[in-house]
Write a structure and sequence with these properties.
The complex is a heterodimer of chains A (417) and B (374). Chain A has 8 helices and 24 strands. With 417 residues, chain A is of the alpha/beta class. Chain A has a 5-stranded parallel beta sheet with strand order 3-2-1-11-24, covered by helices on one side. Chain A has a 5-stranded parallel beta sheet with strand order 13-20-14-15-16. Chain A has a 3-stranded antiparallel beta sheet with strand order 4-5-10, with no helix packed on it. In chain B, helix 3 crosses helix 7, helix 9 packs across helix 16 and helix 10 packs parallel to helix 17. Chain B has 17 helices and no strands. Chain B folds into 2 domains: 90 residues, no CATH class; 262 residues, Fumarate Reductase Cytochrome B subunit, CATH 1.20.950. Classes of the chains: A alpha/beta (417), B mainly alpha (374). Chains A and B meet through strand 17, strand 18 and strand 19 of A and helix 2 of B.
């Protein structure tokens, strides 16, 4: 007698955590529905220039993952989809999904004719709003599914330029949102993170001074698909900086902001110091830190970056960043090892902001067990398991291991139903 | 032989700090945000990050010799921004009270006032009892039957009593302050080379105090600066008035009480008004935003309480005389004399001593060059 076929597993969020959990569960034999809020998969990892541990561009690793998603018949990927509601059933969950209007459907070939005629411009969400893009566009060069998106709210009244330009009939300006329901055995929450908002750090110039940027913005500045085509330039005047300052723990390990350590910002800043030195060998880079948290093999990376000529590490958290003379920024910090105040200058200040779980600001209609910082805890009884930064701040490698574990737990919880 | 430095950690310091409202000192993780946001920290020897570490390590002897402890005005910019809520402003405030106790002469009086939470009834009660006894034994606890309207306080309490008590008290307080001040000056000298004359540095330091230049740079506790400055000038005005009254009585032979229009009286009343306004501002500040104003320990509250009592009874005494309520006036006057005596006697041991120590620290900072302007 064969066991009844288990219901599929739902994975919420198709960043590196959700993709990994979905692939692991599917490759173990389970049907998986992977839902993603955005129009394409890849999440935050795709927004980095290079990532750890090998410092390669994320596109190649993500291409392997999307190939695996494509080829696996047990995985259904639903992009532009959010969870609207969920009810606990004896066998798991009954989930309602919202599908955003498909203004551009699967007939799209990404030829770009529509983009060429689109008159409307919007702030590019993929580039964190650092540049303008047409309202209809490919979300980013590595988008999967490779399909254009349309920001309908930006369309001028009665404009049909893109519809007229499209030779494939892929654009429907009258598309409406739809809903569907789904019976699932267990849920993996892989909803990821967002950077801690810069404008909560005005004392460090965040949201006040245009040459004070966040570490995630620095990734975009260094990336070829970024707003500057990969050139590290000051947002204010478009000039290459000669002095770059990294402010560690900006809004992290701080009871007034995020009380925890995100665990990745030290390495991210060391990595970004290398971006700067590779492009601008003459630039002076200073990293102001409380502690240099580079556990395990990452210690080697710290020593390598710290040993580079023109890279200085100063123990002391920056307390103030204000506009200085000659269009430079003025930083105040105590060099705690020397016991002296430094009044340093920089052309560009990068705030190493931490990771805040998306669930801290974006509600998910699920009864979740969460800690005081809005990170999700596993709920075996409720058959909800967390993966990646939805569970705790961690790097890509840890996220992949973590997501594999979450898939295993969700598989076990949904077995025999 | 290389110079060695000896660390003398005190295991009790943490408990002492906790008792004085600075129990969060252990939360500090030395990020140095505090030093970088402090508007008063000198570039070459910033505070309070280093002092937080010394406090965690129990090195009270180092803290006692550190001018930074007194250059701090508890603006609380550090406390507001501290990512660990370790409240450096409160810690330095508690350290100051410990230093006052440590350097007190005689030591037992320092301990006695340091325990104001328990000893305040005695600190206030004993001087009051003294006046009641003195006046009672000399038959001055009642209003004379022949008191005419327009009476002066000398007809209730002869001036000889005031002089007989307060001149020796002042002398004693001066002696105790000189001993403690010398101890402190020696400790400061052990930490840094001084060049220049004391008086030459004292004058600009007093100039700074006169306008509260440092205090004015405070961020979070800026409202306290105005209250403190008002109170300071109220006390200065009251002291000058007292001196002028002695001149008026014994050289100019003026009849007491002076009319309200007399310049000395005007100065006295303006000073009184400054005291009332300044005192109210400081009390209001304490009752407001706790993080910006700091934690009030019993040590702080005792001093502020005595100051408020002196001001309140002082003003009431004048009003009672103007209202010709002699019996009520005498009662309040006795309380006033007791409170003033408490204020005087506890000067070297209470928070009042910050006047002595902070001034010396500011002079030292000038002479040792640690306090270069930012």
């Amino acid at each position: 007698m064969s066991e009844p076929k288990p219901r599929p597993m739902l994975v919420i969020g198709a960043g590196i955590a959700g993709i990994t959990a979905a692939l692991e569960a599917a490759e173990a034999g389970r049907e998986v529905v992977l839902v993603e809020r955005e129009a394409s998969v890849g999440g935050r990892v795709l927004r980095t220039h290079h990532y750890f541990p090998k410092l390669c561009p994320p596109s190649c690793g993500m291409e392997i993952n999307t190939r695996r998603l494509e080829r696996n018949p047990r995985i259904t990927v639903l992009t532009a989809t959010t969870v609207a509601g969920a009810n606990r059933t004896t066998g798991g969950w009954s989930v309602t999904l919202n599908h955003a209007p498909a203004y551009v459907n699967s007939r799209c070939t990404a030829c770009g004719e529509c983009q060429a005629v689109c008159p409307a411009k919007v702030a590019d969400p993929f580039n964190l709003g650092m540049c303008q893009v047409p309202a209809i566009r490919l979300p980013h060069p590595n988008a999967w599914p490779k399909r254009f998106v349309l920001d309908r709210s930006a369309c001028p009244a009665d404009c049909r330029a893109c519809v007229d330009a499209c030779r494939y009939g892929a654009i429907d300006l009258a598309a409406t949102p739809t809903t569907s329901t789904l019976e699932v055995s267990a849920i993996v929450v892989a909803t990821g993170w967002q950077p801690y908002p810069l404008d909560k750090l005005p004392e460090l110039g965040g949201g006040v001074l245009s040459d004070v940027i966040s570490n995630v913005q620095m990734e975009r500045l260094a990336a070829a698909s970024g707003p500057t085509g990969g050139k590290i330039l000051r947002p204010s005047d478009g000039k290459a900086p000669t002095r770059v300052a990294f402010v560690q723990c900006a809004g992290s390990r701080d009871v007034n902001h995020l009380p925890y350590c995100s665990g990745v910002c030290c390495l991210a800043s060391l990595k970004q110091a290398m971006y700067v030195k590779e492009q601008l060998p003459e630039a002076e880079v200073t990293i102001y830190y409380i502690d240099r948290r580079t556990p395990g093999r990452n210690e080697d990376f710290l020593l390598k970056a710290a040993g580079m000529a023109g890279v200085r590490l100063v123990k002391g958290k920056v307390g103030k960043v204000v506009q200085g003379e000659n269009s430079q920024l003025a930083l105040t910090v105590e060099d705690a090892e020397a016991g002296q105040l430094l009044h340093d200058r920089a052309d560009l200040v990068v705030l190493a902001t931490g990771m805040m779980p998306n669930l801290a600001t974006i509600p998910l209609p699920l009864e979740l067990c969460r800690d005081t910082d809005a990170f999700v805890l596993d709920d075996s009884k409720g058959r909800i398991f967390a993966a990646g930064v939805a569970r705790r701040p961690e790097d890509v490698a840890a996220t992949v291991r973590d997501a594999t574990g979450a898939a295993a737990k969700a598989l076990a919880a949904g077995r025999g139903v | 032989m290389a110079a060695t430095s000896v660390l003398l950690p005190s295991a009790d310091l943490r408990q002492e700090l906790t008792r004085r409202g600075a129990g969060d000192v252990g939360k500090c993780y030395q990020c140095a945000t505090c030093s970088s946001v402090c508007e008063l920290a000198p570039t070459q020897s910033p505070f309070p990050r280093r002092q937080m570490l010394l406090a965690q390590w129990g090195l009270l002897d180092r803290l006692a010799a550190d001018p930074a402890v007194w250059l701090c005005h508890q603006c609380n910019d550090c406390t507001v921004r501290c990512p660990r809520d370790a409240k450096p402003g409160d810690v330095l405030q508690a350290v100051r009270s410990l230093v006052i106790e440590k350097l007190a002469f005689p030591a037992f009086l320092g301990r006695f006032v340091a325990k104001a939470r328990a000893t305040w009834p005695l600190l206030l009660g004993l001087p009051l009892l003294f006046w009641v006894a003195l006046l009672g034994l000399t038959g001055h606890l009642g209003v004379p039957a022949d008191l005419q309207a327009g009476w002066a306080y000398e007809q209730l309490v002869p001036h000889v009593f005031i002089y007989g008590v307060f001149f020796p008290v002042a002398g004693w307080v001066l002696l105790a302050s000189v001993v403690s001040g010398r101890r402190f000056w020696k400790l400061l000298g052990s930490g840094g080379q001084r060049t220049g004359s004391f008086v030459g540095a004292l004058a600009p330091a007093l100039g700074e105090i006169a306008v509260h230049r440092r205090f004015g740079r405070c961020g979070a506790a800026k409202p306290r600066q105005l209250g403190h400055l008002t109170l300071l000038w109220g006390f200065v005005g009251a002291a000058v008035t007292s001196g002028l009254l002695i001149v008026g009585m014994y050289i100019q032979h003026l009849a007491m009480p002076l009319p309200l229009s007399h310049p000395y009286k005007i100065l006295g009343n303006v000073s009184g008004a400054l005291l009332v306004v300044g005192g109210a501002m400081l009390v209001g500040n304490r009752l407001g935003d706790r993080k910006a104003s700091g934690t009030s320990s019993a040590f702080d509250s005792f001093f502020l309480g005595v100051v408020v009592l002196v001001i309140a009874t002082g003003m009431t005494v004048e009003l009672a005389r103007l209202a010709d309520a002699a019996s009520f006036a005498l009662t309040i006057y006795v309380v006033h004399l007791g409170a003033v005596m408490t204020l005087f006697l506890t000067f070297p041991y209470s928070k009042f001593a910050h006047m002595l120590y902070r001034t010396l620290a500011m002079v030292h900072a000038r002479l040792s060059g640690v306090d270069s302007p930012r």
